[in-house]
Amino acid sequence: MNDKCPICLDVFKNPYSIGCSHLFCKKCIDKWLDENYNCPVCREKFVGSFSIPMELITSKYKTRKITEYWRGFKVYVKIHKMMNVYYGEIHGLDNKCSYMNKIFKYIYDNRWIFRSNGNAYQLLGADKFKSVLKDRLIEFSKYSHYKEAKIWKYKFRDILK
N or C: which end of the chain has fewer CB within 10 A? Predict the structure, then answer.
C-alpha cells in the first residue's frame, strides 16, 4: 500500500477515502471535492468521506485485523453506494421495496461486520450503521404490502439488539 497522498505527494495526514480504493489526506481530498465529484485518480464517483486509521496504512504486515478492516470497508462502501442508488434513482414504492430487499439481503449476507468484537465493526462505526438499518426496517414495516419487513426484522433481531 502506498503511504503517500496522490494529490500532495506527501506522507498521509489524516487519511481518507471517498469510496474507491485510493487514499488521500483529508485536506487534499476536501479541496478536490470543492470542484469535482469523483476520485482524482480513477474518476470513480464520490460515495462519501471515510476516515482510514493511520495504523492500517503504516502496518508492515497484513494481519487479520487489517484484512478484516479492508473487507468490512468494501462492504460498508457498497452499502453506501446501494443506498445512494435507492435515494437517487429508484422511484415508486414497489420499486423502493424491491430494491430495499436487495440491500437487506446484501447486509444480511455480510452480517459478520456487525460482530461486536470485530475490528471492522469498531473502526467503521457500525453502531451508527445499526441505527440506520433499524430506522429503514421500521420505515418499511409501515407499508402493509411490504410483507418482507417482518422477515427482515426477524433475521436482523440479533444484530439490532
Answer: C
* Domain identity same for 43 and 72: no
40-59: pLDDT as tens digits: 999 998 888 888 888 778 77
- What's phi and psi for 118, nearest 5 deg? -80, 145
Does one domain contain both 30 and 74? no
Query: Residue 8 domain-assigned?
Result: no
Sign of the Cα pseudo-torsion (28, 34, 36, 37, in order): positive
- Long-range own/partner contacts, residues 67-72 (CB < 8 A, 24 or more apart): 68/118, 68/119, 68/120, 69/119, 69/120, 69/123, 69/124, 71/120, 72/113, 72/118, 72/119, 72/120, 72/121, 72/123, 72/124
CB atoms near residue 88 (< 10 Å): 8
Query: Whole-angstrom Cα distance, residue 31 to residue 8?
Result: 11
All residue ranges of the chain with pLDDT < 70 are 1, 116-127
Question: Is there a domain that residue 22 lies in?
Answer: yes
Domain count, the chain: 2
In the chain, count of helices (H) and strands (E)?
Answer: 7, 3
Assigned domain for 2 exists? no
Q: Is the pTM of this model over 0.85?
A: no
